[in-house]
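Figure S7 source data.
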Amino acid sequence: MAIRQNHLAKIEMIRKNMRAAGLMRERFPKVSGIVIHMTYYQKMPGSVLMERTVNFYPSGYAYFNMRCMARGCENGGFDLSSVIRGLVKNGKKSAKGFLLCHGGEKGHASIAYRINISYRRKSMKSLSPAPACI
Ligand SMILES: [Zn+2]
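Tokens for the predicted zinc ion complex:
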């Protein structure tokens, strides 16, 4: 029972953090989509735990704190928020990098990430169809 409550509390906290992060279209109005591809590694060099691709759309939350997949890691994770903020600020379309889990035993898990960002076209007005009848 305690475990279940713990789990629910954790989910509730993540939801709260997601709401606090705000919606993509509000935080990054120029962005039409973000794709994050991650390869998770366990402590041992070269041991791939899993690969995962996550898509972000304007209607979703701008929450980029990825859960750590290592067993028993409670408060860890990989926060890509600042990386993504920096990319959008500079109008960059892609980036690659490496992060260590920020929780638990140092270096117990890491990810290699690849981020692709698509932007809305600048001239939205010229793309909209002409009014049918004037
Ligand atoms: Zn971890």
